[in-house]
Amino acid sequence: MTHPDPRGVTAGQLDRLNALLSTAMAAGHYRQAYAGVASLPLRDAAGLEALPILRKQDFVALQRETPPFGGLMAAGSRPDYLFVSPGPIHEPGFMRPEFWRMDRALAAAGFGPDDIVHNTFSYHLTPGAWIFDSGARVLGCSTIPAGNAPVELQVQAIRQYAATGYAGTPDFLKRLIEAYGEAYGQSGTHAFPITRALVSGGAFTPGLQAYYAKAGIRVSQVYATAELGLIACDVADRQAMRIDDGLIVEIVDPETGRAMPFGRTGEVVVTTLRDDYPLIRFGTGDLSAFAQDDPGDGAPALVGWLGRSDQAVKVRGMFVRPQQLQGLQARIEGVRRIRLIVDRDNEQDSAVLFCGVDAHQAAGDTTARAAEIAERVREACHVRIAVSIVDESTMTDDDKLIVDMR
User: Fold this and answer.
1) Which of 302, 325, 351 is the last residue of a domain?
2) Are strands 116-119 and 165-168 parallel, antiparallel or unpaired?
3) Low-confidence winner among 50-59, 152-161, 336-345 (lowest mean pLDDT)
4) What is the residue range of 393's domain?
5) Distance between CA atoms of residues 15 and 66, nearest Å
């Protein structure tokens, strides 16, 4: 079954969208951005194509001009959470379930009120952990806020609380299973207690899928972002990812913003139907396509994540962008060229930042300087990345700042 309009927008969603546009255009960013462009009411979702795409890199300039949220926040809205993502970019969070909607994905993955969820997304300044935390709270789950605590403390908590569920990146669960086995064994009363998981923020490879199936853990994958919350979750044995009905999703040509033919790969552009922090035609930078088959309920679906429309990559759940690396290079004396190589090692992300310096500097002991640069990378990108200082003449001159080998 295919959709005549792959966006699958219902009459109710279109009415909600028109009401949202009318309110958003009364003040703030959208009033200026849509002046002379938007013609209301929209007759169908295709009318969105007349509106400019809002991209994450736009947030820095908008927020500098109109702090803290760039004029995107609805009048009278007061966030419950105030986040800071690399950029820096300020992002709001609301405790209302309809803001992030992650309870829907957790419920689809089999989570319920009897579950104890071990949440390994970071609770520090960025929204990731809170998105999953809020969904678990709606369902009545208990949550272990593990974040990025040392692995030995995490496996101890998993055993002591008999955690039944996991939220985190696809590869870190494997590390926890292995660490738990080394600490407590994997048989009888000491068997790893987690039986279901909802993962995001990294590659869920066939190798990992087979590993978890053998371990008896039901793992579902969710597509979400810090700005939007839940976008889609996998259904029908990962043949499609059902789009959440609180959103309107387009697949567009990144250059023109026009819809791609059904089934063709393009950029995922999302419009939220929430009134507190409306994001209209938010360009995620992610590539996907509408699935040829629906997920069984007539809802639109995506085939999954197919890469990035820019050079940005995710390393252990955190985006690293070319602009961040360029900023680092400009602030580090003597570094003439920079390149991040991302790969996989034992089903986990591995990354090395190569910093090209002159031959004389590369010939000496670079240990201390590499450690100093690695700390700067961690502060800027919120992820630990190994640093290698090399002779700049050994680096390929092709202007690529990021190479993803995965």
Assistant:
1) 302
2) parallel
3) 336-345
4) 313-404
5) 29
